[in-house]
Write a structure and sequence with these properties.
Blueprint lengths: L1 E14 L2 E6 L2 E7 L6 H13 L3 E2 L5 E3 L7 E6 L21 H18 L4 E3 L7 E15 L6
Parallel strand pairs: 3-6, 6-7
Antiparallel strand pairs: 1-2, 1-3, 1-8, 4-5
Helix pairs in contact: 1-2
């Protein structure tokens, strides 16, 4: 399971020009689900995302968690995070989970994040063609991968 986490001052998801979810200060989470992912991958990432100290304290240092700044999460599924571009010019998505399993794990990820987080959690629409707007604050962008905990 791979996550691109972007610290934002605002973010929203639009479908056909209509806002379906939005947040102000918080983390925009792009979630890529791999065929081999399990509940252990969800547990690791949910805990890590909640404990990240990437928001500024009163001295301007990245020292606060999302809870300390009363931020929000916005989670968007994105299978392209598991694209392979090693051969040719057309990406391969062989490592990405099949949509049925990916949706099941996306729902479980959202459920665990909502239970664990002490802040609001918004979401995109699984499998929909979405426009994601955001203002990256910092900019701060992190890549987390449950298979490579050194990330």
């Amino acid at each position: 399971m791979r996550v691109v986490a972007q610290r934002v001052s605002e973010a929203s998801v639009l479908i056909k020009g209509r806002v379906v979810s939005q947040i102000e200060i918080g983390l925009l989470i792009l979630l890529g689900i791999e065929a081999s992912d399990t509940l252990d991958d969800i547990d690791y990432l949910v805990k890590k995302l909640n404990q990240l100290r990437i928001f500024s304290d009163s001295d301007g240092k990245m020292n606060c968690s999302i809870q300390e700044v009363e931020g929000c999460f916005l989670v968007v599924s994105q299978f392209t995070l598991h694209a392979s571009t090693n051969k040719g010019n057309r990406p391969s998505f062989i490592r990405a989970s099949a949509p049925e399993k990916a949706e099941e794990l996306y729902i479980l990820f959202m459920k665990e994040l909502e239970e664990f987080a002490e802040v609001p959690v918004q979401r995109g629409v699984f499998g929909a063609d979405m426009a994601v707007d955001m203002v990256n604050s910092g900019p701060v962008t992190l890549i987390l991968d449950s298979k490579d905990k050194s990330f």
